[in-house]
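agent> Task received from the user: take the single chain below, predict its 3D structure, and emit C-alpha cells. No templates, no multimer pairing.
agent> Plan: (1) validate residues, (2) run structure prediction, (3) serialize to C-alpha cells, (4) report one or two observations.
agent> Step 1 OK, no nonstandard residues flagged.
tool_call: predict_structure(input=
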Amino acid sequence: MKKGKIIVGVLVFLVGVYALYLNFTKVDIAKLDNLSGRVEIIGHAGSFHSLVNPIQFYPANSMAAIKQALKDGAEGIEVDLQMTKDSVLVLYHDHFLQSLTNESGCIPNKYFEEIQDLQYVLGFPYDLFHDETIISFQELIDYLNTLEEFPKLYLDYHGFDYCDSIDGYVKTPRILRALSNDLGRNGIDTNKVFLIAGNDNVLRPYANMNTKPIYIMECFTSIEELIPKTKEYGIEHMIVKRSLLTRSGIEAAHQQNIYIHTFGIKSRAGLSNVIKMDVDAIQTDNVPALVNLLK
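)
tool_result: status=success, residues=295
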C-alpha cells in the first residue's frame, strides 16, 4: 500500500512539473511585435521530431522528412541545394557523400545517375526506420505540386565544391541558372521560394537570374553589422542562428523593414524564447512543438 502511494505521489509530482513547464514556455501571441504579426513555421530540412519520438529517424532532405514536416503543420520547408556534374539540382546537406551514404566524394563531381536512388546510411538504430534516398529538386517540385497549396520553399545554397581545391564557387553561376530554369519551367510562384546564402559569390550571379526567388542574407556576425549590406542590395530578409539573435538587433532590423528568420532550435523552451524575441520565421526540426506554441 505504501509503495503504491509513493508511485502515485511521484506521478502527481511529474505531472505537476510538466504542467509548470508548459505554463512557463507558453506564448502570448497577442504580444507578438514583428513585421507580419505572426511567426512562420518552417520544417528544417524536413523534420521528424516529437515528444513521443524525440529522435529524428528520417534523414534531412529526404522525402519522408519533408512529408512529415508538412503533415505536422509546417507552412513551408527548408532544404539544402547542390548540383551534380551534369547540372541536376539535388537535395543534400553535407560536404561529402561518405558522411551520410556508402558513396564517397562530392555531389558536384558526380553525374546524377551515380547518386540517383543512393540510400542514406545513418547507422543503428536510424536505418531500421527508413529506406530514404537522395532526391532531386525536380522530384521535390513534382511532389509539392500535388498538394492542395504549394508551401513556402526555402533553399539553403550549398554550392561550394569541397572537392575543388582551386575555386569552390566556380560553379555558382551555373547552379543559379539551373535553379532559375527549373523554377521557370515548372511555373513556380517565386513569391513562395527563398534562396538562403551569405556570400558575395552568390549575390552577384543572383542578380542575373531570370526567375528569381526571394533572397535571404545569412548573418555570420551581428544583425546590426549586416543591415547596411542588406539595404545596399535591396534585400528584405535575414537569417540568424540562435546565438547571434539579440532583441536590439531584431528591433533594428524591423525598423529597416527587414524580416528576421532563425534556425537550429528544437526544444519547446528554446522555441518559446525566440518567439518572445519577435522573430518573423523559425526553421525547426520540432514542428509539432512550434505549432503547439503558436496556437
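agent> Step 4: summary for the user.
The chain has one domain: 30-293.
agent> Done.
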